[in-house]
């Protein structure tokens, strides 16, 4: 099995109730990488026998640090309409909620379509760029092949109470990214990739600080056929923050296919300690 599929594997206990386990391959600074928790909760929906259509939105609230070990995951549809379905999911450890989520799935139909967002211009072929060095970076980064054009994670360890690096006037990042080892793209892997950007405050201040994502929403603009057509290709990804204030900052990001189709956009709110 691919490391991601191992990390999000679910043993069904009853309808909509599953047992999972954290994966050392996706370890972060504290607990598992948030993207893999997001993918795990979405996978509970994808596995559910009553699922209708494809995911169009996913919101995950990270209520507490996830400890290494067993996780109980539950997913239930709370309303099913003709073409949309609304879901509630939660992850618990020791009878306490560590993460909970909502999702909407839908049956898409052919309509007039257009996009106003624009992909990055003049992005070089990913294989002409060096793969990001994962030395001194969280373990989960080894599960992705990242090739940065702008906004890589600062090299110095940094931390609270240490001098700032040379602060930038922006927090923008642009990179090519795919699973490592390569894996055909689907909704669960895309949901994890949507959290694979480094915290925007690291990029803006050029130092590492204690942070934690509080809430993350992902909007899926692609259907199953579009994702299947991507195969194992690199995805073009961008991220930036809009505001840093009083211990919290946001992140807005986009994930584009190699042929410049918008696959997903994502927004999150992150806690930081200075």
Describe the structure in your own words.
There is one protein chain. The protein is mainly beta. The protein has one domain: Acyl-CoA thioesterase, double hotdog domain (Porin, Beta Barrel). The chain is built from 5 helices and 13 strands. Strands 1, 2, 3, 4, 5, 6, 7, 8, 9, 10, 11, 12 and 13 form a 13-stranded antiparallel beta sheet that branches. The mean pLDDT is 95. Pfam families: 4HBT_3, 4HBT_3C.
Which descriptors would you attach to this protein?
single chain, 274 residues, mainly beta, Porin, 13-stranded antiparallel beta sheet, 14% helix, 37% strand
Concise synopsis of the structure shown:
Pfam families: 4HBT_3, 4HBT_3C. This protein has helices spanning about 5, 35-45, 185-195, 200-205, 225-230, and strands at about 10-15, 15-20, 55-60, 70-80, 85-95, 95-105, 145-150, 175-180, 210-220, 235-240, 245, 250-255, 260-270.
What about the largest sheet? 13 strands, antiparallel
Number of strands: 13
Low-confidence stretches: none
Let me know the CATH homologous superfamily.
Answer: Acyl-CoA thioesterase, double hotdog domain
Tally the helices: 5
What CATH architecture do you see?
Answer: Beta Barrel
Mean pLDDT: 95
Q: Work out the radius of gyration.
A: 18 Å
**Domains, number:** 1
Percentage of β-strand residues: 35-45%
Briefly, what CATH class? Mainly Beta
Tell me the series of helices and strands, N- to C-terminal: HEEHEEEEEEHHEHEEEE
The helicity comes to 10-25%
Q: State the CATH topology.
A: Porin
The N- and C-terminal alpha carbons lie at a distance of 40 Å
Alpha-beta classification: mainly beta
């Amino acid at each position: 099995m691919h490391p991601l599929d191992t990390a999000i594997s679910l043993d069904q206990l009853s309808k909509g109730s599953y047992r999972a386990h954290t994966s050392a391959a996706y370890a972060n600074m504290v607990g598992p990488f948030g993207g893999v928790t997001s993918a795990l909760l979405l996978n509970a929906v994808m596995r559910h026998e009553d699922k209708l259509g494809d995911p169009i939105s996913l919101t995950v609230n990270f209520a507490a640090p996830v400890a290494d070990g067993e996780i109980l995951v539950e997913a239930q549809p709370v309303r099913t309409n003709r073409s949309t379905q609304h879901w509630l999911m939660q992850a618990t450890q020791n009878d306490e909620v560590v993460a909970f989520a909502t999702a909407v799935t839908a049956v898409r139909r052919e309509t007039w379509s257009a996009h106003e967002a624009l992909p990055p211009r003049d992005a070089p072929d990913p294989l002409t760029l060096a793969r990001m060095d994962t030395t001194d970076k969280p373990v989960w980064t080894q599960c992705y092949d990242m090739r940065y054009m702008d906004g890589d994670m600062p090299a110095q360890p940094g931390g609270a109470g240490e001098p700032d690096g040379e602060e930038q006037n922006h927090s923008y990042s642009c990179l090519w990214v795919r699973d490592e080892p390569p894996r055909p793209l689907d909704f669960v892997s895309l949901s994890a990739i949507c959290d694979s950007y480094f915290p925007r405050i690291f990029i803006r201040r050029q130092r590492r600080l204690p942070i934690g994502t509080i809430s993350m929403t992902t909007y899926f603009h692609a259907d199953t056929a579009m994702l299947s057509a991507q195969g194992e290709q690199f995805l073009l990804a961008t991220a930036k923050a809009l505001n840093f204030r009083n211990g919290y900052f946001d992140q807005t990001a986009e994930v584009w296919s190699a042929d410049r189709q918008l696959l997903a956009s994502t927004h999150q709110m992150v806690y930081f300690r200075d």
